[in-house]
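hiii, so i know i said id send this last week but things got crazy w the move. better late than never?? heres the sequnce for the chain we talked about at the cafe, plus the structure i predicted for it. fair warning i was half asleep when i ran it
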Amino acid sequence: MELIQHYEVIDGQFNRQRKLYTFAYIVNIIFLGLSMINNYVQLETAMRIGLMIIGTAAIVVMYTTIKHPVNLLKNRWALALIIVALLYFLSFAVFKSLHGSPSYRLGMICGDAARIFVLTSSIYFLPQPPFGDKGKA
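okay and structure toks below
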């Protein structure tokens, strides 16, 4: 009886982690979409800051709840997607930091570096959807 209870507890923990990963995955997709829209239509500063905080939290949740991360050396599609996303986000950062004072440009470069890291990290999870194989999340 104790063994059955133990497995029920483990199964409950697994289901909670799976639900948390699913929620974070959906938040991550919304974060990516809004971040890409921000490249073309300037969102308000408070909304951009909120997006970065929420996106970073979603990434941390996904990193901590995933059981089998994608091996980028074996999954060429995921690696190509990350490289394309990195170049895409980098291109916007380079063009934004071309004007202004040197201290302004330095601030823009540092902020954009953090933004590029968060956005590229969120791309890493796209080939790892929570739907389908129960052993993934």
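btw The mean pLDDT is 80. thought thatd interest u
miss u guys!!
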